[in-house]
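In pairs, describe these two lines:
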Amino acid sequence: MVMNFKEGRWNHEINVTDFVKTNITPYEGDASFLAGPTERTKAVWNKCLEALAEERANNGVRSLDPSTVSTITSFAPGYIDKDNEVIVGLQTDELLRRAIKPFGGIKVVEKACRENGVEVDPKVKDIFTHYRKTHNDGVFDAYTEEIRSFRSLGFLTGLPDNYARGRIIGDYRRLALYGIDRLIESKQDDLRHLTGPMTDARIRQREEVAEQIKALKEIKVMGEQYGLDLSRPATNAQEAVQWVYMAYLAAVKEQDGAAMSLGNVSSFLDIYIEYDMAHGLLDEIHAQELIDQFVIKLRMVRHLRMQAYTDIFAGDPTWVTEAIGGRFNDGRT
């Protein structure tokens, strides 16, 4: 580590809040310090504008892969403009290409694909119909006859079978602050302490923690595909932004919740930016470039949706919500 943050940087316990409270520099000025987009950012954004125009011209879906089940590592690395990108990573191997996520429900995926003029790969359909139980299958098994009746008649909407993933908010800052290896170590410690009578609840919790460890290992592999060593903490502002985005990217590769919120990352990233600027490692122009390209990547997030989703929400929105700023209990901004 080249960074030398204040005490509290390396608590044994995973604690991002303590890091932010200890190291944040409150700001009460105006926006006069801001810089405009760099030529690299403009080049990347122009490629996005071209792709967005193609997406609109193609009834809202530029490209669709009906054969590859989207996981953290199932797609090869994707780039918008590799020579000009300072923050890398796409959900699939091509800008604005949508992927299938049948773990939630194969029928939803089938319908969304059909509405866009393609059919789900027969092998995928066979696996998720006969061999792999989906979320929707489990929900319908749990429904009582009364619930099914109310659903069929349209009295109840927003039920878990068609709103399966709901709102998902992760703390993506952890990857930048601790690195994958430290997070895996923490989860392995959790698993060691989940002992005692093997009740249904404890068995399920052990299984879920084991799945978390597997996912963290996959994120590390995804990073390697882009030439990034996510095993360690971020050592500068560029890595901090990149690491946070990699964690979020892993989430949107696997999940397509109606709201895949980002949480509060601006205060966190500002700490790294302030540190690098104070030590002559970064200027305002390149700090702006990092954030601009980060935001571009967030704006390019796409999920495969049925037309009904578009109708309900008057378009094809993705809620990548960022909670900017705020105030501590002690009055500091």
Q: What stands out?
A: The beta strands are 63-69, 97-100, 167-169, 259-261. The mean pLDDT is 92. The chain has twelve helices and four strands.
